[in-house]
Amino acid sequence: MVRAVPGARYSRVAIAFHWVIAFLVVVNLWIGLIGGSMGLHKSIGLTVLVLTIGRIGWRIANPPPPLPVSTSAWERAAAHLTHAIFYLFLIVLPMSGWAMASGTTRRPLEWFGLFAVPYLPISPAAAGAGHEVHEIVGITMAVLVALHVGAALRHHFVLRDAVLARMLPGVR
Ligand code: HEM
Ligand code: HEM
Questions:
Q1: What is the four-CA torsion angle of 151, 67, 72, 19, rounded to 10 degrees?
Q2: Which pLDDT tens digit goes with each residue over 5-41?
Q3: CATH architecture for residues 12-167
């Protein structure tokens, strides 16, 4: 059994960002694909946008721990590609949703009913493009999340390494 470099864990802050954002994204995929309050969906989505900007800043200052040495080249490539696409999508999804809402909605955009968020000053055509992007990226995101969760569970239960544990709070 090969383990990750001892002590090579994600920082507490990275772990907190990961799980808060993951929870919010799952809720938003659920509302988008299955149904629920669109006001809640928009507030959660804007929250994901702000948190993701903070998360990327944190990651630049605090690089993630290296993967276990046993990780093959294709596994490394798959992990890096998935993670890079996640960061891209975590920005593009809320932005395209915001763009879409800016073209169609008359009521003010609110953050959990606490304050108004301005609509983006864009043309109806750009808002329409945002709608297309939001739909395609949203569905692709759901597929990627499934692959990502599958990979995490494979590490834990099949490869039996510490890759899942190092992203869990409190596990050594
Ligand atoms: C993490 C962020 C987000 C995720 C994962 C997400 C995901 C989704 C998904 C999967 C759909 C269904 C797509 C379809 O089949 O039509 C959807 C629809 C929608 N989203 Fe988002 N979204 C996010 C952020 C936002 C934001 C920030 C806004 C607006 C401020 C927004 C506004 C909307 C609207 C208005 C719809 C309905 C589209 C329609 O009527 O076809 N979303 N979202
Ligand atoms: C649902 C939305 C989710 C998103 C958007 C997401 C996104 C990400 C991203 C971007 C990373 C890379 C972190 C970095 O190195 O900067 C990551 C790592 C990780 N995620 Fe998720 N994640 C989600 C859900 C989950 C779930 C449900 C699990 C567990 C079952 C999970 C397990 C992991 C693990 C174990 C890592 C560390 C991988 C490594 O050490 O290279 N994630 N996730």
A1: 10
A2: 455 899 999 999 999 999 999 999 999 999 999 999 9
A3: Up-down Bundle (1.20)
